[in-house]
Amino acid sequence: MSVSYKYWDDCVDPDEMRLLWKYPEVRKEWIDAGENIGQKVLLSRDPEGQLYLTQTEMRAVAKIVLQRHFNSQIELEMICVIAEIASDRQLLAQKYNKKTKQTTIGIMQIEQETADWLVREIGYRYYDIEENSNLLFRPFVNVYFGAAYIKWLSCMDGKEEALDAFGTAQQLSVASGSGEGWTYWDIRVSSEDMEQLWKHPEVLKEWTESGERPGKVRFSHDSEKRIYLSRVEVKAVAEIITSRWFVSKGIRPTTLAALADICSMRFVNGVRARIGLLGIDYPTAAWLYKLVVDYKDVQYRAYKVVSVDDLYNPFVSMYFGAAYLAWLSVYEGRQRDLHFVIQAYMSGPENVSLQETGPLWNKFQQALSYYEEPKKKNRGSCCIL
């Protein structure tokens, strides 16, 4: 089925249109061109009649998508350069790749098969393209899946290799940053969870001393502007999660906190292929969400996990990390010790070697020492139950 647009209103939803009008540079450009708020806005056409986005419009779409869905983990310039090189910012661009025998679509030149895979396997489900594949021509939808693919590629070994896969390695770089609207705890975390954090005495002390106030608590940033949790915050989140939902499972908050140290170095967005604070991936979290344990109606549904984006909430990542630990602790119907569980969490239960006490276990023990009380550090317990 052919796709044809004339107005912006034909290819974006009302909320996206509202956000575009709020973008100062777009607003000025459109008003200068004779457009009016409340009326349909004409799409631009090049001399050959092809629909395209102006550079101002392209930057606005990319910025909105990155802030909404990717916590500004990808540089704005990266998206804009890819759009420029891949499609000349043409809305309906299509190119057939003889090597892959696939057709790339839209501004970011994303393959339909790739977009379907990102939905099915990785959990990028904000836009439902399975019911209508032509949605991929829409600017916000195309940039969303293009950015999702870049995010996945950036987790591959070697940044150059990852970006070469998108064809623009020389001009692009991935940045794990924090953009406007995503620097505050209160935006990512529910009001109920924030209330629990404010009630935690150590968090209250730390936040008060740093000048935070309810409704606008800042995340800490490192020198590369990556947001992370202090050890006080990590331990508090772990204590809240375990006390609410995992008391009967015997999951220690210090175990979860130590895992956050070694999985993500306490970075809220995770590191490389490990997503979020506890490094739990979307397929595993989605599986746990649907899991009924031992036919006893034990379910892990305190937090919804609709897409991978949910796992950038520290509480959600911690919750599903704890759920996975609980499942591993009775793997194959046998009670497992902490040595097995930690190896299984990091490498998969099928890759555990109980005969080896390698650097991973030593690293975990070191991280654990940061969170345990001095009198408990030398007890030598290897059981989470």
UniProtKB/TrEMBL annotation:
Coiled coil: none annotated. Pfam families: SLT. The lineage of its organism: Eukaryota, Viridiplantae, Streptophyta, Embryophyta, Tracheophyta. Residues 72-154 form the Transglycosylase SLT domain. It comes from the Eukaryota. PANTHER family: TRANSGLYCOSYLASE (PTHR37179:SF1). InterPro entries: Lysozyme-like_dom_sf, Transglycosylase_SLT_dom_1. This is Transglycosylase SLT domain-containing protein.
